[in-house]
Design goal:
Elements (H helix, E strand, L loop, with lengths): L1 H20 L26 H10 L10 E3 L7 E10 L5 E9 L2 H16 L5 E2 L13 E7 L6 E9 L2 E9 L3 H16 L4
Antiparallel strand pairs: 1-2, 2-3, 3-7, 4-5, 5-6, 6-7
Length: 195
């Protein structure tokens, strides 16, 4: 019974991923976010798949890289995009998405559109504080929600580093704090591959 509810939560996260990854239309960036602008606006010559492969070597204990796929979202300035699933032995599950744009401005514009959509969702809590240690790289925003039936939680973190956009969704069968912790660690693993 508990496993079924966790699968339902994972399915809901998959729908949320689709809604956030492929925003429809053009969005005007909000006047402010919980993130701060990077003092470095460097562009990095990296491939999204290579960032995910590097992140897999720095993933938190128990997480292993599962399937990965190329993305081809219709976004201005896209250079490469990929996502991978990271299952964990304890029943947690994460999805990492990396999109490399041609300029930092394109990555920040995409970030702002995702954050604008996320802030429009009801029932979510701002968990950006769990990403505070990464905000010197660029913009960061986090949001999460505990299952009202007590069957785990989901946390999502979106960040930028120069022209690279990072998004991690983590589903924990235990608590929002656990989902936040795993999400933050996986965001850090992604940053390790952008240099």
């Amino acid at each position: 019974m508990r496993r079924g509810r966790l699968l339902t939560l994972v399915a809901a996260v998959a729908v949320l991923v689709a809604l956030l990854l492929f925003p429809l239309g053009t969005f005007t960036p909000p006047s402010s976010t919980s993130g701060t602008a990077s003092t470095t606006s460097a562009s990095f010559v990296v491939d999204a798949s290579a960032v995910i492969a590097s992140a897999a070597t720095h993933a938190p204990a128990g997480y292993t890289q599962g399937s990965s796929h190329q993305l081809n979202p219709n976004e201005t300035g896209l250079q490469s995009g990929a996502y991978a699933v990271f299952p964990a032995q304890a029943g947690s599950l994460a999805n990492m998405t990396i999109i490399v744009f041609d300029t930092p401005k394109s990555a920040q514009t995409y970030f702002m559109s995702v954050v604008s959509n996320a802030k429009g969702l009801s029932g979510y809590t701002d968990v950006s504080s769990s990403l505070a240690s990464y905000q010197h790289y660029g913009l960061c925003y986090g949001f999460g929600e505990a299952d009202p039936f007590g069957n785990g939680a989901v946390a999502t973190g979106v960040c930028t580093k120069g022209n690279v956009y990072i998004q991690v969704h983590a589903v924990s069968p235990s608590s929002l704090l656990s989902a936040e912790r795993d999400m933050s660690s996986l965001v850090g693993a992604a940053y390790s591959g952008v240099n």
